[in-house]
Design goal:
Blueprint: H1 14-26, H2 41-44, H3 47-60, H4 64-78
């Protein structure tokens, strides 16, 4: 792969670049951003277990993914 390095981007001036740099250097906190449910985990859970996983997650105050991860970890530890 051959990528060309350019000195400017058409339509983006020095003020915008300075703002991008400031934002990039400040970083993005993963804790402060909004949280969205992962739509993909439902595909890995049989329909008859989805409600139980969601109930357990709410009871433990964790995500459904964390419940599934813990269950798989426990299961694999006994295999």
């Amino acid at each position: 792969m051959n990528l060309e390095v350019v000195e400017f981007v058409p339509g983006i001036g020095e003020p915008e670049l300075a703002a991008f740099q400031t934002e990039a250097e400040a970083g993005h906190g993963t804790v402060t951003g909004p949280s969205y449910p992962n739509p993909h985990w439902l595909r890995a859970v049989p329909d008859d277990l989805v409600d139980a996983v969601e109930r357990m997650a709410r009871a433990r105050g964790v995500s459904p993914e964390a419940v599934i991860r813990a269950a798989l970890t426990d299961y694999l530890a006994t295999a």
